[in-house]
Amino acid sequence: MADNQRIHPDIEASPRPSAPLVPGNIAKSENGDPNNSPLPPPLPQRTLPVMHSKPPRRRRSCCCRFLCCTFTTLLILIIAIAITAGILFLAFRPKIPKYSVDKLRITEFNFSSGTNILSVTSNVRITARNPNKKIGIYYEGGSHISAWYSGSQLCEGSMIKFYQGHKNTTVLDLPLRGQIQDASGLVSKIQQQIQDTNNIPLDIKVKQPVRVKFGKLKLFKVNFRVRCKLVVDSLSANNDIKISSSSCKFRFRL
């Protein structure tokens, strides 16, 4: 008995669908397979500038530090000087020296018409008063004293060196001499003023270097400046000259 055989028809294995080589959203090239088409050129790359961090401002910080230190030092120095000056003022109670012109004598007032030169020799008496109880004054060398009329210097001289103690009054007789070139106009002006008013205004100017002594402390040198305005009745030689008015102003400079 023949074995029953079941005969099945040969069924060819159906091939599995393969994935498309080109995605659906990409159109096929007219020349064939897109895999064989040339690659698109690369996009240009943008080079970004390199940002460097700023170096620390050492130089500027050093300058600011130096200025701050200098300003602080000056401020401390000014405060120290102010405190010292305040202590000295409270301790010594300084007062301004007083000066006056008490006498003027002309020993020569000679005008030479041939040389047009005016020669003047005089003697002026100045009284210096120190009203301070605890302050002395050293009158140093290098002083200058001069007599003026209407902006023209008539004669000049200097003061002597001396020390003026506390509550002291010193009388100084100082010789003055001078020569004025081209003095014809000046002499005519003086003579005309004497005839019209019988008064002649004069200026006595003094520049005197001094050192002030507070107790035992001798300070640095300063300049005393004194300007005295006089009105006299004559400039005749060897005659008594009357001073009708006299006023002096005092100031000092470092």
Automatic annotation (TrEMBL):
Regions annotated as coiled coil: none
Q: Where are the transmembrane segments?
A: 66-92
Q: Where is this region: Disordered?
A: 1-57
Q: How does it sit in the membrane?
A: Single-pass membrane protein
Q: An example of a Gene Ontology BP annotation on this entry?
A: defense response to other organism
Signal peptide coordinates:
none
Q: Which residues form the Late embryogenesis abundant protein LEA-2 subgroup domain?
A: 126-228
Localization per Swiss-Prot or TrEMBL: Membrane
A GO CC term attached to the entry: plasma membrane
Which residues fall in a compositionally biased region of kind Basic and acidic residues? 1-13
Instruction: Note the superkingdom of the native organism.
Output: Eukaryota
Provide this UniProt record's keywords sorted from A to Z: Membrane, Transmembrane, Transmembrane helix
Q: What is this protein called?
A: Late embryogenesis abundant protein LEA-2 subgroup domain-containing protein
Species in which this protein is naturally found: Arachis hypogaea
What is the phylogenetic placement of the source species in the record? Eukaryota, Viridiplantae, Streptophyta, Embryophyta, Tracheophyta
